Amino acid sequence: MVHCSGGNQKAKAADVLAFFLAPVSKKGRGWKAPGYHYFIEANGTIVEMWPEEKVSNGVKGYNSVSINVCYAGGVDLSVPGNPPVDNRTPQQKASLLILLKSLKAKYPGAEIRSHKDFANKACPSFDATKEYASL
Prior knowledge:
By secondary structure, the chain is an alpha/beta fold. The chain has one domain: Peptidoglycan recognition protein-like (Lysozyme-like). 22% of the residues lie in helices and 9% in strands. The chain has three helices and four strands, in the order E-H-E-E-E-H-H. It is globular, with a radius of gyration of 14 Å. The relative contact order is 0.21. The model has no long low-confidence stretch (mean pLDDT 94).
């Protein structure tokens, strides 16, 4: 599953991980596992947030059969309401392609899908299912 963070493109994986795991009382999600296995920062750095063999919280109802990959960004923070926008950096696009190719090689029967294919949201702010159909 491909996701966007729906936040600042300058977000670092460590901060996103801390948000997922922090208690609600400390303005976190309070989850036992993060939403993503991999996070791609604006400079293209790929960070493993969670081991692939463990279930993450990316797409309700599909977590046990998914590897969740996210890039920082996906919204326009300069516009009220923060509408969705495909603002992947060239480095993020390159890293996402490398990571997805690697995962597809490891799991040849897997389908690369957009989070929005399974939920009523714009995530990941582009059609990853279509863009990566040839992998």
